[in-house]
Design brief:
Blueprint lengths: L1 H53 L8 H4 L9 H25 L3 H13 L2 E7 L6 E8 L5 H8 L30 E8 L3 E9 L6 E10 L3 E10 L7 H15 L6 E4 L2 E2 L4 E9 L2 E8 L7 E2 L3 E2 L4 H7 L2 H9 L2
Parallel strand pairs: 1-7
Antiparallel strand pairs: 1-2, 2-6, 3-4, 3-6, 4-5, 7-8, 9-10, 11-12
Helix pairs in contact: 1-3, 1-4, 1-6, 3-4
Length: about 325
């Protein structure tokens, strides 16, 4: 009947708006954090290698010798964040040294090469025989205990004081991970022989999220894996939700160029050809040709924004307006 069709259409429209928000928040939060952390640790790995090239006999990083290697112009907070990650990688160096007995500079070079080929891995799957749909995001950068007990577990704290690069150590808007999910599982370790596993669930009686499990285990796991778990009825999962997750992954992540991203093992980074850039009061606007079907108005190649078309076109150089209009 026509009335029933109208009600179904309205319901689907509401679900589309809600799902797009929930999935995009989850992806944008965790992929941005993973990307920032990886770029920071890439720098840390580079400086660690340079340090042991200069001080091959040292049995660990001496901060007074490390800081002169940094470029001028870094803020005190940027230096602090960089030194924290260098210290973590130096612990990894010590772990490998104890097992293999190789020179520290050799291990430091090995770590630097590993970060050049590291990636963000996104998985979306249903375990066999389960009624749980799991979407996970994993990167090679772990969190130390002080971060887990601080910004990560302050669930209602959606901001974290720090430079942009510090966002990757989580805590920046972490509450968005809980949008429209039943359980959140976090596994994280810095490669020092121990790692932590947390489970955050919703208390049905109060409606508040609680840390239902927090344990420390032995192992050399290094990285952070966040698993968003949503239960579905025994009749089967919602295809609509899976479609929106796929859509959000490509829409919000596909334009990244400096970090490889995979979805269920398949690389999803697009090929972008930069045409030109223009500085505006709102920051730099860059025009790309892309092999994607998605509109690409990005901030730092990650956030996709949809301003009103007349506002957007006012910022684009005149010579490119016809190109954009011609491409829809």
């Amino acid at each position: 009947p026509q009335e029933q069709t109208r009600e179904i259409d309205e319901d689907i429209t509401k679900r589309i708006a809600g799902q797009d928000k929930a999935e995009s928040l989850f992806l944008r939060e965790d992929v941005q954090n993973a990307r920032d952390a990886m770029l920071l640790e890439r720098k840390a790995a580079e400086y660690l290698k340079r340090y042991y090239e200069d001080y091959a006999d040292d049995e660990g990083v001496v901060l007074e010798k490390m800081t002169p290697l940094f470029p001028s112009g870094l803020s005190s907070e940027e230096v602090t964040q960089l030194l924290e990650r260098i210290n973590i990688l130096d612990q990894v160096t010590s772990q490998r040294l104890a097992k293999a007995g190789r020179p520290r500079v050799e291990i430091a070079k090995e770590i630097e090469e590993e970060y050049k080929s590291s990636r963000i891995a996104i998985r979306s799957y249903i375990p066999s025989g389960s009624n749980e749909w799991i979407v996970s995001i994993e990167d090679p950068c772990g969190m130390p205990l002080n971060v887990i007990a601080g910004p990560l577990l302050v669930l209602d704290e959606t901001t974290k004081i720090g430079v942009l690069s510090s966002e990757g150590i989580l805590g920046m808007g972490f509450y968005t991970n809980l949008a429209d999910c039943d359980t959140l599982r976090i596994t994280t370790g810095i490669g020092n022989g121990r790692f932590h596993q947390l489970i955050i669930t919703k208390d049905e009686s109060t409606g508040k999220f609680i840390v239902s499990s927090f344990k420390e285990s032995k192992g050399d796991y290094k990285g952070t894996r966040i698993e968003r778990v949503k239960k579905f009825a025994k009749t089967g999962p919602s295809d609509l939700e899976a479609i929106f997750m796929e859509y959000s992954i490509h829409r919000y992540v596909g334009a990244l160029q400096d970090i490889e991203v995979t979805h269920n093992g398949r690389k999803i980074n697009e090929k972008l050809i930069e045409v030109d850039s223009v500085d505006t009061p709102y920051g730099q606007i860059t025009l790309y040709f892309s092999d994607s079907r998605y509109q690409r108005i990005t901030r730092n190649l990650l956030y996709v924004e949809y301003p009103k078309s007349e506002e957007y076109f006012a910022l684009v150089p005149q010579q490119y307006l016809e190109i954009l209009r011609g491409r829809g």
